[in-house]
Design goal:
The protein is an all-alpha fold and about 350 residues long. The protein has a single domain, classed as Na+/H+ antiporter like fold. The protein is built from 17 helices and no strands. Helix 8 crosses helix 13. The longest helix is centred in the last third of the chain and has 29 residues. The chain is globular, with a radius of gyration of 20 Å.
Length: about 350
Amino acid sequence: MVGKLLYLLAAITAGFIFNQLNIPAGWLLGALTTGMICGIFINRFTFKRISFKFALAFVGANISLLLTLSTLKMIHHFLLPLFLTIIITITAGFLFGIFLFKRSKGVDKITAFFCCIPGGASEIIGISGQYGADDRLVAAFHTVRMTFFTLSIPLIVASISPAVQNTVFVEQAVASISWKTVLFFALVMAVTLVLDHLFKIPGGTLVFSILIGFLLTQFVFGVEQVPRFVAGIGQALIGAFVGIRFDKYVLYQILKIGPATLTIVGMFFVLTLGNAYIFKWLTEVPFATSLISTVPAGAAEMSVVAIALNVDPTIVTSLHIIRVISLFLTLPFLLKFFMYLNKEYREEDL
């Protein structure tokens, strides 16, 4: 327990230092880098899923403070372009799975399928074992993809649309946190975890926390502007939990599978840029918003990237959650079709 607490403290401290150095998404990237170094060279800490859910609920509470009715009214304008990019992304992931199976020795069909389906990483990893996939390999593959995009997207967005510098001094900001702010975050996190336990839906933690936070601020009590370092701590926690997954086993799997891993991640990257341009062209939103909204990475990770780079996180989060839910609704059909194309479809496999 002490080791885990020291690790989280080190990750948050690194995030603070990166932020003070004006590195894009510094809180996130500092913690992520700390996690990768710790996982590979020191020790791979294993956190219970509830810890990640606490961090997600905290991030969702921060996002809810930025949500407005006008933003909600805008979402439906993005649905058709979004579904087009979802179809492109799922089709590409499907084809990448075939490529991985054909080019990698020892990777069975079901494992290859789950490695390349770009849904919610935690949810995909969680159910892959139920279908007979090697869930450790699936986890490794998704960790590589998530880590790559979490590292690269902030740098790309910052290079094409420089973020507003947000250097803060904690000593000056702590005093501005009122009891209402503390109560708000406590209520959002508590109610979110209860609802998440009762209702199992993809991306549920983010959905519930944003919804509860929005309802509280609209109908119960207002919350003063929260210092930016509060959101930064949430970003650092997400970075810490994601980064620590990149351990020696993940590195070993990358080397074991070989060029296929790098090829697929590279193709996902090219796909991401293409989808972002399509989405931007159809919606006329800024390219930064388009890129963060359509990248096949986690809703939580891209939400904190959006917050860090001053991109509307409510739009980004909404579109990512719609993508994840759409994928899970079609997942059984995709898997059956995948098995059929590979000529070994058997009803008992599913």
